[in-house]
Write a structure and sequence with these properties.
Helices cover 53% and strands 12% of the residues. The protein has 217 residues and is α/β, with parallel strands linked by helices. The chain has a single domain, classed as P-loop containing nucleotide triphosphate hydrolases (Rossmann fold, 3-Layer(aba) Sandwich), CATH 3.40.50.300. Bound molecules: cytidine-5'-monophosphate.
């Protein structure tokens, strides 16, 4: 057993089920969890609160440098307007650079007593933690993801229309996969889990098998 933390990298598009999986895997295996989307969302929220433009590189980079742990649990981060602005700031290479240390530091020094960490996002297996012990890419058909996101929004009391939700997901997929720096990609050594026809429990069991085998070495 080495003292190096055990790292699970989970990437995938919005509403694919990767966040739920990351949280549940972390609980099951005694790992810390970092939802790296919150860093981009916190950056976006700071920009919007300053009435600045998320596409303005100076404003976005300054905001990314102000992000710290205390901002990551703000309920406003879940707002769809913030998600949209997050995908705009996330295309900026300097924003990504400013947030990289936070993510790598979390992976290198997960909060005690965790023996490792699960990080979920878009570029974890490719850029943030390329040496991760397990790499998963969680995806699902856009229509199924839109239905899931719609149900989440409605459950939290937000009125939303299916076609708008689908359009927004496709907008973010295109931006996230098409940007020049750290685009969303399937790392060559990742296991792809398509959750279109799987419920959250089935996804957890499939991923747990992979993690258990990696822990056993
Ligand atoms: O995962 P979530 O939907 O919260 O992410 C919000 C946005 O943050 C994504 O659409 C993406 O643009 C950006 N992001 C990223 N890299 C990550 C995590 C999130 O570019 N590792």
């Amino acid at each position: 057993m080495t003292s190096r933390p055990f790292i699970v990298a989970i990437d995938g598009p919005a509403a694919s089920g990767k966040g739920t999986l990351a949280r549940r895997l972390a609980e099951r295996f005694g790992l810390a969890h970092l939802d790296t989307g919150t860093l981009y969302r916190a950056t976006a929220l700071l920009v919007l609160e300053d009435n600045a433009d998320p596409a303005d590189p100076v404003a976005a980079t300054a905001a990314a440098r102000r992000v710290d742990q205390s901002l990551l649990s703000d309920p406003l981060l879940r707002d769809e307007r913030v998600a949209h602005a997050a995908s705009v700031v996330a295309a900026n290479p300097e924003v990504r650079q400013a947030l990289l240390d936070f993510q790598r530091n979390f992976a290198a020094h997960p909060p005690v007593p965790a023996r490792g960490a699960v990080l979920d996002g878009r570029d974890i297996g490719s850029v943030v933690c390329p040496a991760a012990d397990v790499k998963l890419f969680v995806t699902a058909d856009p229509e199924v993801r839109a239905l899931r996101r719609l149900a989440e929004l409605q459950a939290s009391g937000v009125a939303a229309i299916y076609s708008d939700v689908l359009q927004e997901l496709e907008y973010r997929d295109t931006r996230d996969a098409g940007r020049g720096t750290a685009p969303m990609v399937v790392p060559p050594d990742a296991v792809v889990i398509n959750t279109t026809a799987l419920d959250a429990d089935a996804v957890l069991e499939r991923a747990s098998d992979i993690v258990s085998r990696a822990i056993a070495g």
